[in-house]
Write a structure and sequence with these properties.
The protein is built from six helices and nine strands; from the N terminus they run ααββααααβββββββ. α3 runs antiparallel to α4, α3 packs antiparallel against α5 and α5 packs antiparallel against α6. It is elongated. The two termini are about 35 Å apart. About 35% of the residues are buried.
């Protein structure tokens, strides 16, 4: 009797839908919506602001129509400024530099997606075109980065993530410098306003390091049902702290399902990805055929 993965024995493995510009929650970290709500409360109901603060609208950082300069969507892993923001010219300049760095990295990634889509259209590779269209839509409409499973965009995605992180670190340095200078100038109230603003931003940075949804797949086995599975960026499946895992080496995707009834205590699906990461096929350790197709 052929052994199967959990899909064949238990039906759905847990359908965790792709999230819109969100991060998986671990350790009680604040979500972006909660952060923005706190920022709004501070702006509307907080105490009178000292000289270093003033009410001003949040600076937009978006991806929709990046190539012609319009901005509406915040890419995941980046920061949004508090509604009650500092009046420091140094901080204002730091935000301008941060926004420019984020937009440049996002534009470069979007251009890479478009270039691969055009090449796929030239080859009449409909699956690859669909993957690139989904990647562009996720980036421009929801701020979601392309999947790390997609080998054709892996390097570009990593470059964007690194650029976002470096821009955030530079922004943090500017905040710390201004706070220290204000304290040295015996302006504790002004320093406190900017320190509070940075505290919220630091929470966003910490939250950006939490596991995120990488991609969703229709996972199937021979003569068995199909189930949607969700791969997280920390290498887990269906939940950021779940027991099942996935790894990628080159084009080989290995999925491990913990199960005491399986040989060695886990089912191991070893699959090869298609060129554009839109599907995979392989077998488990007992030879049962496994296939998967990316959910756009």
């Amino acid at each position: 009797m052929a052994a199967t993965s959990p899909v064949a024995r238990g039906g759905r493995l847990g359908n965790v839908p792709p999230r819109v510009n969100s991060k998986a929650v671990r350790g009680g970290a604040l979500g972006r919506g909660a952060l923005l709500a706190v920022m709004a409360i501070l702006a509307v109901a907080g105490p009178a602001a000292p000289a270093a603060a003033r009410q001003k609208p949040a600076a937009p950082r978006t991806l929709e129509n990046l190539l012609d300069g319009e901005q509406k969507v915040v890419p995941e892993g980046t920061l949004t400024r508090a509604l009650l923001s500092s009046a420091s010219p140094v901080i204002d300049e730091a935000w301008q530099e941060y926004d420019a760095a984020v937009q440049a990295a996002s534009t470069k990634l979007l251009k890479a997606i478009d270039a691969r889509k055009r090449r796929s259209q030239g080859r009449r590779d409909e699956d690859a075109v669909a993957v690139m269209e989904a990647a562009a839509k996720g980036l421009t409409e929801r701020g979601v980065l392309p999947s790390a499973v997609d080998g054709s965009l892996r390097a570009e995605r990593a470059a964007a993530v690194l650029a976002y992180r470096e821009a955030g670190e530079k922004l943090a340095t500017r905040y710390r410098t201004v706070i220290a200078e204000l304290r040295e100038d015996d302006k504790p109230d002004d320093a406190s306003v900017i320190a509070d603003e940075w505290s919220l931003l630091a929470n966003q940075l910490e939250f950006a390091e939490q596991p995120q949804v990488d991609s969703v797949w229709r996972h199937s086995i021979t003569n068995g049902p199909t189930a949607e599975i969700t791969l997280y960026t920390n290498g887990t499946i269906n939940a950021p702290d779940g027991p099942d895992t996935w790894t990628l080496k080159g084009s080989t995707l290995t999925i491990r399902w913990k199960n005491p009834e399986a040989p060695g205590g886990e089912w191991i699906d070893t699959c090869e990805l298609a060129d554009q990461g839109g599907s995979y096929a392989g077998k488990n350790q007992l030879g049962t055929r496994i296939t998967g197709k990316r959910v756009p």
